[in-house]
């Protein structure tokens, strides 16, 4: 039996779950290289927690982060 170590992907929080004023309720961690493509082309990204959505907003310091994404991100080991 072999084991595999997960490395921490390069991610950044992106918004979903909008509120009445069109601002996201929380932000999710997604792969950085997919953000611009999603924002420009409207393609969907997959967050660490599994949520699928198009990028429409960028986070500001202090923005709420999805607890599931944060837990997964914090559990990953840094890349080489």
| Pattern of helices and strands | EEHEEH
The gross shape turns out to be globular
Q: What is the helical fraction, as a range of percent? A: 10-25%
- What is the first-to-last residue Cα distance? 24 Å
Mean pLDDT metric: 78
- SSE class: alpha+beta
The total of beta strands comes to 4
Kindly report the spatial arrangement of strands forming the biggest sheet. Answer: 1-2
Q: What profile does the largest beta sheet have?
A: 2 strands, antiparallel
- The Cα radius of gyration reads 13 Å
Tally of individual helices: 2
Range of strand content = 25-35%
Set down the secondary structure blueprint.
Elements: E1 11-18, E2 24-31, H1 32-41, E3 44-46, E4 52-54, H2 67-75
Antiparallel strand pairs: 1-2, 3-4
Task: Write a structural description.
This protein is of the alpha+beta class. It is built from 2 helices and 4 strands. A hairpin with a 5-residue loop joins strand 3 and strand 4. The radius of gyration is 13 Å and the shape is globular. The two termini are 24 Å apart.
């Amino acid at each position: 039996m072999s084991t595999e170590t997960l490395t921490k992907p390069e991610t950044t929080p992106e918004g979903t779950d909008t509120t009445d004023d069109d601002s996201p309720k929380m932000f999710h961690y997604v792969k950085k290289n997919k953000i611009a493509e999603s924002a420009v082309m409207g393609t969907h990204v997959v967050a660490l927690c599994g949520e699928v959505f198009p990028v429409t907003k960028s986070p500001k310091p202090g923005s709420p982060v999805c607890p599931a994404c944060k837990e997964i991100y914090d559990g990953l080991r840094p890349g080489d």
